[in-house]
Amino acid sequence: MRIGLFFSLLLVFVLPNQQPNTQSNGPGLVVMDHRWSRSRQTTERLDPATTAPAASVMTPANKNWERNVRINNSVGARDPNADTVDGRAAAIEKTVQESRTAPKVVDGFSYRLKVKNASPGVVEVLFWEYQFADPVDPNITSRRQFLCGVNIKPNKEKEVEAFSVSGPGDVVSVTSLGNKSGSPYQEKAVINRVEFADGTIWQRKDWNFAEIRLTYQRAISTPWSKEMCRGL
Fold it and tell me: For every residue of the chain, which 3-state class applies, written as one string?
């Protein structure tokens, strides 16, 4: 499913000038719930077997080093192989590989959306965004856009989750910050584009695909694995 999703997403970018079979009615998806929270993401470790540094070349000096250190050298004597070009290169490579295999923890935000497919078709691709607005001044807004690969059959519900390092942002006025009665934001989730398994597409009229073309290209530049959504 992920491989098929990758190629279907890629076709949207490669063939942008083709006119899709666009639906004129609603998106067919009903937003049931939406929420966000602070989150933390940990990258997976790489396989050490595939990232092991190349062995250094043996020299006449290090062939007998272990024997000589026991006889003549003091404790802590330096391995002569470490001073060769290959030895230094291996040490550098080992440091690089250790940094790659170490887990990387990223603090960010989790955005969740629960939808129900009220259409007769199977939904494969979903473009959506989480919007924040200042309750006092609605002109102060920010949004976080996401692309999700889904497989939602008719009358079925699905919750998708996306991770982003970007939070609500500076969308709150001083007046709103002084309001202690509730959330400082007006929040809502908006469906921007829905792509169905039969090739039909629904797209929100005031949403422009060209605005996210570069971030979309970046999002599909690598094959998808376990993640369901990527940020735009």
Answer: CHHHHHHHHHHHHHCCCCCCEECCCCCCEEEEEEEEEEEEEECCCCCHHHCCCCCCCCCHHHHCHHHHHHHCCCCCCCCHHHHCHHHHHHHHHHHHHHHHHCCCEEEEEEEEEEEEECCCCCEEEEEEEEEEECCCCCCCEEEEEEEEEEEECCCCEEEEEEEECCCCCCCCCHHHHCCCCCCCCEEEEEEEEEEECCCEEEECCCCCHHHHHHHHHHHCCCCCCCCCEEEC
Please give the model's pTM, rounded to 2 decimal places.
Answer: 0.67
Per-residue model confidence as pLDDT tens digits over 71-119: 565 555 555 555 665 656 666 666 656 655 667 888 999 999 999 999 9
Mean pLDDT, consecutive 10-residue stretches, the chain (232 aa), reads 50 43 72 94 60 49 55 57 61 63 83 96 96 85 94 97 86 56 81 96 94 94 89 93
Sign (positive/negative) of CA torsion 25, 157, 144, 37? positive
